[in-house]
Amino acid sequence: MANGLVEACSAFGTNFYRKGGKLHWCGVNLEDLARRYGTPLYAYASDEVRRRIKVLKNAFGAIPRFHLMYAVKANNNVEILKLIASEGVRFDCANLNEAALAMKVGAPYMLSGIFYTREELEAALRLKATVNLDDPAAWDLVKELLSEGAPRPKRLFIRLNPGWGRGAFSLILGGEGSKFGMKPDDARIVAREIGDMGIEFGVHAMVGSGIFDPSHFIRLASFLLDFALDVGAVAIDFGGGFGVPYKPDETELDVRAIGDGIASLPNIEKVEVYAEPGRYLLASAGVLLCKICSIKRTDPPIVGLDGGMNVLMRPALYKAYHEIVNVTRPMSDLIPTTIVGRICESTDEFGRDRPFPSASEAGDVVAILHAGAYGYVMSSNYNSTAKPAEVLIEEGSVRLIRPREEPMRDIVKSSP
């Protein structure tokens, strides 16, 4: 089973192997890394980020005028953003703070927020940002600002809710009750008014997360294309939501099938096409390293790590699965084990009944895999804990890209 685990991780393209009994990743001994920088620790691999970008560019290469955007919300470390921007990828930003990060690294971006305030839209127009309008009220604010002399945008996007959607963890991004996007009938009115003002525009929708079915994305792109041609849009953006295999028995999404399917749509050459992955580019490019504090020898045993839901929220938030590996010891003589953090919450669990070495001891280093997306960005200071450090592995060398917080300095603020 130990070899199976490592082989499964390698199949994900994450370059894990054992050497001298210790788990290595991308040429680096993970135990040494944890000892050097302390735990909890996020580690990212630049080669894996570049590889995932290349996979998508190749998969969508047959689509005329295709552009890749990265969803900054997945991982906003500036050094990661610089890396992604250097590959010619544009950015999808959820708010003006993320837009500021895009500008910092020199990447073109789209502002794709929801429930905008007047102040946000005023600033966005002043910055000449491409704004994705999530509801008719946002367009009403833009019209009001333009009438007051705000700079005229070169391009806008309209976010649609096509009336259907699907996703992992029972989280649906489209359809009845979704907070994202506007109904097609409302979008047609907005499109007509934008067109009457001589402003070019695109149409956007993202109606799924963690999807492994290529037909989902082809269907969405087809819907957007038909809508775009009907209302005179110059671009379509079918969002992200590309499934990532977190579990060893899951297989990679066939992104080539998505690209070929969209490329074969009649009239696809008449519009620019955008996709905006986040998790797909970063999940497998990151691991979270923690240390075992102690083990309660119950049935099953409970392994307590020095990182918890304050460091990686996904398992507690929606029971997301992450593979958990003992770095220090071979994954052999495995027994069902509950693995938890130190936060004072009953939901602070990484997994139950996980196969874990019976010989595990306090002080062992543990790796939580596929933690490069929605990890640090969702971390918190809950229980007055400090946020972890982040490092970047580049061609076998390691550098610190965000220092660890110091609790007494960064959390406990003195009164003036």
Describe the global form: elongated
**Percent of residues in beta strands:** 15-25%
Largest sheet: 9 strands, mixed
Average pLDDT across residues? 92
The portion of residues assigned to helices is 25-40%
Poorly predicted residue ranges: 1-13
What structural class do helix, strand and pairing data support? alpha/beta
The number of helices is 13
Strand tally is 22
Distance N to C terminus = 57 Å
The radius of gyration is 23 Å
Topology summary:
Blueprint lengths: L1 H10 L4 E4 L2 E4 L2 E2 H8 L3 E5 H14 L6 E6 L6 H9 L3 E4 L2 H9 L4 E3 L6 H9 L3 E4 L2 H12 L7 E5 L6 E2 L16 H13 L3 E5 L3 E2 L4 H18 L3 E3 L17 H9 L8 E4 L3 H4 L3 E11 L5 E4 L8 H5 L5 E3 L7 E7 L8 E9 L7 E4 L20 E6 L2 E6 L4 H5 L5
Parallel strand pairs: 4-21, 5-6, 5-14, 6-7, 7-8, 8-9, 9-11, 10-12, 11-13, 13-14, 16-18
Antiparallel strand pairs: 1-2, 2-3, 4-15, 15-16, 15-20, 17-20, 18-19, 21-22
Helix pairs in contact: 3-10, 6-7, 9-10
Structure characterization notes:
This protein has about 425 residues and is α/β, with parallel strands linked by helices. It is built from 13 helices and 22 strands. The protein has helices at about 1-10, 30-35, 45-60, 80-85, 95-105, 120-125, 135-145, 185-195, 215-230, 255-265, 280, 315-320, 405-410; strands spanning about 15-20, 20-25, 30, 40-45, 65-70, 90-95, 110, 130-135, 155-160, 165, 200-205, 210, 235, 270-275, 285-295, 300-305, 325, 335-340, 350-355, 365-370, 390-395, 395-400. The strands form four sheets. Strands 4, 15, 16, 17, 18, 19, 20, 21 and 22 form a nine-stranded mixed beta sheet that branches. Helix 6 packs across helix 7.
